[in-house]
Each structure stands twice: as structure tokens, then as C-alpha cells.
Amino acid sequence: MEKVILIKYGELSTKKANINYFLAKLKDNILIALKDYDVKIEYDLGRMFIHTNDFSNVLKVIQNIFGIHEFCIAYLIKSIEFKEVTKNIINLLKETTFKTFKVETKRSNKKINNTSVELSKMLGGEILKNIPNLKVDVNNPDLLLNVEYRLNNTLIYYETLPGLGGYPVGTLGKGLLMLSGGIDSPVAGYLAIKRGVKLEAIYFESPPHTSNEAKNKVFKLSRKLALYNNDINVHIINFTAIQEAIYKNIPHEYLITIMRRMMYRISAIIANRRNCKVLINGESIGQVASQTLTSMSAINEAVKIPVIRPVACFDKLEIIEIAKQIDTYETSILPYEDCCTIFVPKHPVINPDLKKCLEYEKLIPYEELIYNAIKNHEIIKITKEEINEYSDLL
Questions:
Q1: For 259-306, what is each residue's pLDDT tens digit?
Q2: Domain, as residue range, for 84
Q3: In whole angstroms, what is the distance from residue 259 CA to residue 27 CA?
Q4: Quick count: other Cβ atoms within 10 Å of Cβ 372?
Q5: How many Cα atoms within 13 Å fall on the side-chain side of residue 11?
Q6: How many Cβ atoms are within 10 Å of 29's Cβ, its own excluded?
Q7: What CA–CA distance (Å, rounded) separates 125 from 295?
Q8: CA 255-256-261 angle, 5° bins
Q9: Of 204, 265, 303, 389, which sits with the fewest C-beta atoms within 10 Å of its C-beta?
């Protein structure tokens, strides 16, 4: 009997003809995450197995990998003979403390004559015979014993743990996350990763109006996202000249709208260069003036690339709850202003007129300003190996 880590696929099992692509990517992602450990991975269309001697650390790592529905310690018996399976189950359960149990059996090997229900009853009877003071409880057992009869072996396990679900990172292409230092955009990034999107990020700084602390906060948030994304490239755009030109020349009620249109244009160019298929941001309908439907429409008009807003229909409390779950909330609420929170007008327009946006943009040489911002932008690659480099930010 071999001790292994069992991975269940969940949603991936619905992929039918494409499932091999998703499973191969999941295996690759797990190997990348576990490259510092001695592991061997095997899989078929039903299950994936990790062979290792470092169960504790490997379990900690795989709990942060998307594409895994459930995982657990399991025991692989290289036999489908009832007596051999029963002997191994009895030996295993004698080392476990419980008073009530239930047996659930699956048999993908249909050559076995007994049905799954019959096998469960037979195994339950042998357990009661060999381990005293136990009772069967089919509704709320202390221990749910899972037994899977496979083609040439049998799998037994209990105490499964929930995985993150979703799709393996990278199976659905790349996206560029418009990452601010706030609460919403890291959550949006996390949710995009969950759907199989490999992220790069873009951050707009405006020195001296924004501080190094604000940028460091974004690096820390990026580090949190890299935990799920394997690594992350952060594009740092100096937005000062553009923001000052907008402030000096554009009617103040349109400052935020025009600023966002410029950010979208820059992000779309960077996305195209980096083979990112979509922009991703943390906009939530109605949360601020630039996030009304009219505002979103006017801002979106500046680019042709699709824009995904994973938290668009979440309320603030729902977003905060996810931020706390992924450990970005405490960082996001640090009091350092970003581009979106400086130069905020007292009465921003909530229903901007697109014709006025186009008219006001002619007041500044935005094409030249955008060119210079992109030409001089910086790329920071944050990986798991660089944790020491950014330890002061973590």
C-alpha cells in the first residue's frame, strides 16, 4: 500500500475532448510550484496522483493552485482482490480514531461482479468484524471511507480538503490587470486567475504626487497574486505628465473620465505588445463616479480590446470578504494615495458625454504624452524566488 496525494478535478472533468490539454497544464503548474521538492506526478482522466515523501509541505503548496477541486492523502493498493483490499483497510483504520463510519464505493472497473452498493456493505461488514466498538452511520459519520476500484488497483481515502477550483492558470491565455493599491483590483486579478487567465499587471504612478510607499504596496499586492499566478510582470507607468496636463487643461468635472481613458489607451498598447487578450480591472458598478454604466461606456470607447470586470456585480462587502480570504485586504487599506485618488474633483461627472470627452482630449497632446510614458516605462518581474528581494514589503 503506497501513500500518495490524490487530486480531484471537479470542473475540469466537464471538458471532454479538451480535457487532456487542461490536465497537462495542471500537471505543469503543479510541477512549477513544486520544483523545490522531490515529486512524481501521474494522472489519467479521472484522478491525478503526486508521489512524494514531503507530504506536509506539498499539501501546503497545492492548496494555492487553481484547477484542483479536492485533494487529500490517499492510499494506493496494487490489487482489486477483496481480501487484499479489506486487509489494507483494516490496518489503516486501526490507526485512526473514530466511533461511526460509512463506506462509499466506486468501481470504474466494471469487471468486478459486485455492485458499488454491495461492495460498500461487504467492506462495512468486515470493518465491524475486525474493529470493535464501531457503528455505521449513513447520515453523519465520524469517518467517511471512500473506496475506488480502478482497473488494476484500489484507492482508499478519507478527510478530503477543498481546493481552489477554477481552471489551471494559463489555459485561457493572458490578461493585463490594471492594478491599483486599492481593495478591488487585487480581488479582480485573483478571480481572473481562477478562470485560467495568466496575469500581467500595470500600475500608474505619479511622482511626486504619489509616494514610493504606494508603489511598494502594489509590489506587495503583486506578490500575493504571484502566489496563484506563479510569477507576475508589473508594468510601472509614470503618469505624472499626463495627469498634470489633464489637471491644467481639462474641465475638472471630467478629470477622472479623461484620466481613465488615458489609462485604458496605455494599458491596451501594453496588452497588445505582451500578447494579453483582455484588460482586467476592479471596477464595480456604481461604486464611484467613473463606474456608472454611462462612465464605463465613455471610458471603454477609448480602446478596442475587451475589458473584463470580475467584481462588477459584487457589492463592497463581498469584495472585502474575498480580499480578506486572499490576504490582500490589510495591504490594500494602507493609507497611501494612488493616481486614482489624487486630484479628485469635488463634483465629478457621473454621466459623461462622449462628444465632450473627445473635444476635451484635443486640449492636450495626449498621443505624444502616451508615447513617452510607454517608451520610458519599467517592468518588474516578481517571482516566488524573489521573496527575499521584496521581504521588506511583505
A1: 999 999 999 999 999 999 999 999 999 888 778 999 999 999 999 999
A2: 2-165
A3: 42
A4: 14
A5: 14
A6: 21
A7: 67
A8: 100
A9: 389
Whether 105 contacts 112, CB under 8 Å: no
Quote the CA–CA distance of 69 and 66 in Å, as a whole number: 8
Residue 384's pLDDT is 64
Grid cell, residue 355, equals 462628444
Rounded Cα gap, residues 257 and 381, in angstroms: 30
344 and 368 share a domain? yes
- Residues of the chain with pLDDT > 90, as a percent, come to 84
Domain boundary among 165, 191, 214: 165
| Residue 390 predicted with pLDDT over 70 | no
Q: What is the CA radius of gyration of the chain?
A: 27
Neighbouring-strand partners of residue 161? 71
Report which DSSP code applies to 284: -
Three-class secondary structure of residue 198 per DSSP = strand
Fill in the amino acid letter for 129. Answer: K
End-to-end CA separation in angstroms for the chain: 42
Neighbours of 116 (CB within 10 A): 16
Q: What angle do CA 281, 286, 289 make, to 5 degrees?
A: 85
Cell numbers linked to 346: 469635488
Question: Could you give the CA distance from residue 258 to residue 392 in angstroms, rounded to a whole number?
Answer: 35
Cα atoms in the Cβ-side hemisphere of radius 13 Å centred on 211:
7
What average pLDDT does the segment 319-340 reach? 90
- pTM as predicted: 0.90
Say if CB 187 and CB 282 are below 8 A apart: yes
Q: What is the DSSP letter of 281?
A: -
Same domain assignment for residues 146 and 51? yes
Cβ partners under 8 Å of residue 29, min gap 6:
65, 66, 67, 168, 169, 170, 230
| 147 plus 202 within the same structural domain | no
Q: Edge-to-edge strands of the sheet including 278-280?
A: 307-308, 278-280, 174-178, 198-205, 231-238, 378-383
Phi, psi dihedrals of residue 389, rounded to the nearest 5°: -60, -35
* Residue 220 grid coordinates: 506587495
Q: How many CB atoms lie within 10 A of CB 73?
A: 15
Q: Please give the single-letter amino acid code of residue 246.
A: I
Residues 362 and 339 in one domain: yes
What whole-number distance in Å separates Cα of residue 108 and Cα of residue 153?
11
